[in-house]
Amino acid sequence: KMTLKKICCIGAGYVGGPSCAVIASKCPAIQVTVVDLSEERIKQWNSDHLPLYEPGLDDVVKSCRGRNLTFSTDIDTAIQEADLIFICVNTPTKNFGIGKGRAADLKYIEAAARRIADVSKSSKIVVEKSTVPVKAAQSISNILQANVKPGVKYQVLSNPEFLAEGTAVNDVLDPDRVLIGGEKNSLGKEAIEALCWIYEHWIPREKIIVMNTWSSELSKLAANAFLAQRISSINAISAICEATGADVSEVANAIGTDSRIGSKFLKASVGFGGSCFQKDVLNLVYLCECLNLPEAAAYWQQVVDINDYQRQRFANRVVESLFNTVTDKNITILGFAFKKDTGDTRESAAIYLSKYLMDEEARLRIYDPKVEKSQILRELTHPCISEDPSRVSKLVTIHQDPYEAAEGSHALIVCTEWDEFKTLDYHKIYQKMLKPAFIFDGRIILDHEALIEIGFHVETIGKRLSRKPVHRSIAPSTQ
Ligand code: NAI
Question: At the fourth CATH level, which superfamily is domain 6-203?
């Protein structure tokens, strides 16, 4: 069996950082070097303030940084010394040219492949961990082979990452499965075995699924498309609930108990966010279009369309409830991260909601426990969100304390399901707000009856709430 002494990871982001930190902690005999073009990011990985927040990540990094885990900007040396190289660079949606708004931009992947080809003096196993369209491994392989140095051999594997932000460390420590795609010939098998050997340090062999490269690449896109599809499906149901008086949480519970459907990922909300779901569904849509499969493309496109619709629908309800105008009204936004337990704001529903409300000239008071002020302002002043960035400084204030953020507000909107929002003192918040005081629960996490009892006007996703306080004696008891 081939053993690996040194591995390198190109891309010190949300995937490269946590996944390689866990590899280093579980494989003390392997030297792991994580490299990035961004000096700032590498500096943060080497500091006490890591560039991203993930539960448990600080401990894992501290336990092996300086031992067998190194963060560096010296990309060439790390490539030269490594037996195996993970490519974990970003693959964002293209915002220009062919496939604009749908296709994945593979320029970072290609740059990484060219760098490997340029500097390698010995054979390498190159592992594509970034999410890519089907056949990207073939392109990497072509670039490597076209620039190969004498005596150097390359094997390219697909090893998509399934970690979710907010639970990244646990997901890598205890994954449902590990997927490896590679070639069926003897060199391919040898490379697959070498990568398996890394994972077998802590993952049982039966959880490692080996398949052909294209299936592996497609499986990642398919998995994210299915997950996003479940959210859009329940959100489409939530619209029916609001129009009829059915309760989406009850419906989700009813269908989720069917073992063929399963209960996870059936929570209606203001819409999914994050850097992956929309990007990967669009990536799949574009793939279908390129393969001349317009019906399949249209099917998956609907998953993204329903998500846009859900965010817009929720924003419309906020405006409608506030007597059809939010101009100059103070609106408190609780949560800016795209989900709880992460500081990541990429494609967060809060961004779009803020945009719609800023378009109506509402004044936003934003609080998030983990997102830095500069990050929120960067998102809101992005040209896709604000045509005139100076309006952001006029309309938006960022707060360090939720009670302060609620001061003098007409309405409060829960955009992220942070646990701490469930236990805020809503009596205190009610007192600080203008009346009538509105709460819009975009994540269905609050105790609506208790809030109504305090005096709030409460609106949530997928359920009509009564306007008047419910009297315990006549309400069917749910406690
Ligand atoms: P990220 O943007 O956080 O990190 C990518 C890093 O790669 C950046 O720090 C960038 O500076 C660096 N980079 C880009 N080109 C480089 C080059 N040529 N040489 C050296 N460094 C370079 O991205 P993230 O979130 O880690 O995602 C990476 C890939 O993993 C994407 O394809 C994504 O779809 C996929 N993925 C992401 C997940 C997530 O939850 N964020 C989960 C599973 C897969």
Answer: NAD(P)-binding Rossmann-like Domain (3.40.50.720)
